Amino acid sequence: MDTLILIGQIILVILGLFLVLVILLQPAKTAGLGSIAGGAETFFGKNKSKSFEGRMVFLTKIAAAAFLVISAVMVFLQK
């Protein structure tokens, strides 16, 4: 059981670092002055899910969900 807890802790540390990295890699949400003239409606604005930003948002959701699930499993393993 101790090995399983150690493996879980290592996975949690790796997931935590990955989550911080993915969040820091996301571009800022501010549009700047380009949005005044309608610059936000470009090809990349319409296909946001296929862009870098869309992938980062998806990875953030997956990493956060995995972090929560593994954290809950670790709580039950340590009791």
Write up this protein:
- With 79 residues, the chain is mainly α.
- The protein has a domain of 55 residues.
- 70% of the residues lie in helices and 0% in strands.
- The protein contains three helices and no strands.
- α1 packs antiparallel against α3.
- The chain starts with a helix and ends with a helix.
- One of its GO terms (biological process) is protein secretion.
Report the biggest beta sheet as strand number plus sense, adding barrel if it closes: none
Low-confidence stretches: none
Helix content: 55-70%
Number of strands: 0
Summarize model confidence as the mean pLDDT. Answer: 83
Distance between the termini: 11 Å
Descriptive terms for the model:
mainly alpha; protein transport; cell membrane; 79 residues; transmembrane; membrane
List the helices and strands and how they pair.
Elements: H1 2-25, H2 43-46, H3 52-78
Short description:
Helix content is 70%, strand content 0%.
